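DATA SHEET
Item: assembly model
Revision: 1
Owner: S.N.
Input lines:
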Amino acid sequence: MIHLKKVTYLLCLLFSSLLFSHPLPNTMVNLSVQSKSILMKIQVPRQNFEIAFKSKVTGNQTTEITKYFSDHIQIEDENHQFWKMVFLDYRIQSNTAEFVGKYDEILFRVKFLPNKNSNVRDFTIHYDAVMHEITNHQALVYVASDWENGLHDDSQQIGIIGIDVPTNTIYPLHISLANGSQWKGFKSMVALGMQHISEGTDHLLFLLVLLLSAPLISNEKKWIGSGRTKYSLIRILKIATAFTIGHSITLIIGAFGILNPNTKPVEILIALSILITAIHAIKPIFPHKEIYVASGFGLIHGLAFATILSNLDLDSSQLTLSLLGFNIGIELMQLLVIVLVMPWFLLLSPFKIYKWVRIIGAFLAGIASIAWASERYFEKANGISILIQNSSHQAIGFVLGLACLAIFFRIITPKSGY
Amino acid sequence: MKILFHSILILTLGIFSFFGAKNYSSNKSKTSVFNNQSIVSNATTVFSTQEIVDLATAFKATLSASQITSLQLSYTLTNARTWSNLPASMSPRLGIKMGTLNATQLAAAKALVQAMTGTPIGEGYNEVQGLWAADDYLSANGGGTNYGAGNFYIAFFGTPAMTGTFEIQMTGHHRTVANTYINGNLVGATPSFVATEPYASFTSGGNTYQPMLEEKTALVAMLAGLTSTQLATAHLATTYSDIILGPQDDWIFPTTKVGLQASTLTTSQKQLILDAIATYVDDVDDTSAAAFMAQYTAEIDDTFIAYSGTATLNNQNDYIRIDGPGVWIEYSTQNGIILSPKHPHSVWRDHRKDYGGTGAPLSNQNFSMVSRIVNFPNPVVENTTFTFNLTQNATIKITIYDLNGRFVSAPYKNSLEPGNNSITVDLSDLSSGTYLYSIEANGIKSSSNKLIKK
C-alpha cells in the first residue's frame, strides 16, 4: 500500500510538468496578405478548440471543421459582401508557452477569396471561434506577411478580438492595410536575399574558401603557384557563376514547392561542402573541376535558400517576382563580398605568405564546418559554433586585416615567385 | 455533521496556531522568512486606521533610505494597477521585496499586513499566512526560487496618514491585497485577488494549511441551497476557463447581470450568498468588513449569482460569479502548474470602490472604455493604424509622448462609436525614435503603449 502510494506520488511528480496552470494561451490568427486572397493560419490550444467544437479532434474531420469555421469566421468587404472561404487543412502539433508549459494546439489553414472588385487590403473580420463558448478567450490577430508592403519575416500584431465584457458583444475587427506596390515587394525581396547571405556565414565561408584557391595553379597533386591576374579573374568569375547557376536552379524548384527536402540533411551537407572545399584549398582534391563542384554544391545551398521563400506563403504572381528579387539580393551580396575580399587575395597570391593565409584560412574554415555539421546533426550548439555566431560581426575587421597584410607585403617585399 | 466538521476545523486550527506560536519563539534558523509566524486567532483584536497608519509608519522607520525609495511610491493609477496572478518573477511588482527584509523589518511588515487583513480564522491574515506558506510549498516542491513567500512585495502608494489618500498593496503570486484609505477610512479593499496552489491541505513549517477551503465551501453551499429550477437559471451556457476581471481588467463590469437574481430567493438562500461574500470581505480589518457586509446585505436583492461547469467547483472550468450593485466575486477552477491538477483563482472586486472608489483620483466610470490597443504597422514608416475596443460612444484623442512623458503630438481627435475601431493616422512628420502613446476616451487616458518611428 505504501509502495503504491509512493509510486502514485512519483507518477504525479513525473506528469506534473506536463500539466498546465492558468488558462491556455489565446488563439493566434496570422494573416498572409496575398495579391488576390488572404491566407489565415489559426492556432488554437487543442483543449479550448475541443470545448468550443464540442467534440474531440482526431483524424479526418475536415467536413465538420469546415462547417464550424464557416459558422464562426466571415470576412466582409467594403460593399458588405462576404468573401468565399476555402478551408485548406489542419494539423495537431505541440507548442510551449510561458506559465503553461507544453500543450497541444491545432493549426488550421483557411483561405479567403474576395469577390470581384473587392479590395483585398480593406476588410472586416467577423470572428467568434472558440470565444462564443469560452467567454474569456481572445484571438490575437497578426499580419504574418504583406508582400506588397515588404512585410514578411516577422509578424506584427494588428488587433485583438474578444468579448467586450460590459456589453457582452464581440465586435468585428476592421483591417485596412496601407497600399503597397509590386516595386516595394520586389525591393524587400532583394533586401531579404542580401540579408540572408550577409547573415548566412556558412554560405559566405563556402564561397570564400572556394575562391581561396582560385588564383592558383595546380599540378594535380599540389598547388604550385599563382596565375596571372587575368587567369585568376576569369577563374573567380567562372566559379562564382557556377555557384550562382547551381543555387538558382534549386531555389526555383524549391520555391515552387516541386522539391521539398528536409532542412536538416541540407544544412549538414552545406557544412560538409565547406569542409571539402577547405581540404581542397590546402591540397587540390578536385583540380580543374572547381566549376562543377561549385555548381554541384550550389544546388545544395539553393535548397536552403528555397525554404526561406516557401515559408513566406506567397501566391504564384508574387513568387516569380520574389524569386527574381531574392536571387538578385543573393548575387549582389556575394558580389560585394567578392569585391571586398578578392583583391587582397589576388594581391597576396604571388607571395609566400599567401600559402599560410590559404592554409590557415582553410584550416579555420574546416574547423568551423565540422562545428556546424555537429551542431546541425545533434541539434545542439557547441562552443565553436557559438564563438562563430558571436564573432561574425567582426568580418569587417577580418577584411581590413587582410587588406593591411596585402598592402604591407606589396610595399616591403619585391615580387617573388611562389 | 456540520458541527463535527466545524469542531475538526477549530481543532486543526488550534493545533497549528499552537505550533505557530512555538515556531515564533525559535525563529532564528529557519530558511524561509515566513515559517516563523504565529497564527492570530484572537477575534477580539480590532485594528483602526490609526493603528494601520502607525504600523505603516513604524515599518517605514525600520527601513534604510534606499529601501524607503522602493517602498514609498506615489498614488497613481499605473502604480495601483501593477499586480498580477503570476509570480513576481514573471510579472514584476512594485515596492519592496519581502524576502530582502531583515527579521525586524519583516516583523514590522507582517504586523502591518496583519492589521490590514482582519482576524477571522481561515480568512484575513490567517489566510494570507496560508497563501505565503502555499507559495513556499510550491517553491520547495518543484517550483524553485520563482515561488515562495519571499517573492511577495509590499508597496505604499501615497504616504500613509489619517488625512488624504493612500493605498497599501501586498502582492505576490497568489494573493494581492490592495487597501485604499481616504481620510482615515478603508474606502476600497479591492481588487482583492486570492488563489492557491496547492488547493488540498498541506503542511509547511510544521503548520497545516488549506487557505481557500472556506471560500470554496461557502460557494458550493450557496449553490447547494438552490432548487434545481433555480440552479438551471443560475447556470451559464458558456465556459469560463478563467476569471474575466483579472489583473488590469479594471472597471469593465458587465452592464447586464446574468444568472439568478437573489430577490427571488428565500431568506436562508440569501444568507448563503452573504456567507459566501463574507469569506472575501472578512479579508479586511473587522470594522471595515462589517461596513462592507452591511452594504452588500442591503443590496442583496439586486445581486445575481451564476455558475458554469458543475456546482461542485471540483472540475477544471467550474466557475462561480456573484455580481451585485457593489460586490463582484469570481471563482474559477483551473489545472495546477506544479502540483495537483486543480487549483482556484478568485477575485473580489467592487463596482464602485475598486482602488478607492469611483470619483476618487484613480478611477472613473469611463476608464474602461478603451481596451485591446494595438497599432500596425509598428515600427511606423508613414501611416499607422490604431485599433482598439471602445465600449461606449466617446470622444477619442490619440496623444504621442516621448519616453520622458513629454507631449509630442496629438494626431487624432474625434467622436467614435462603440466597437473595434481602427484609426489610421499619418505620422510621417514624426522624427525617428521610440515613443509612447495613449488613447483618451472623454479625457480619460489609457495605459501607454510603445510606438517606434523609423
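QC remark: The first helix of chain B runs from residue 2 to 25.
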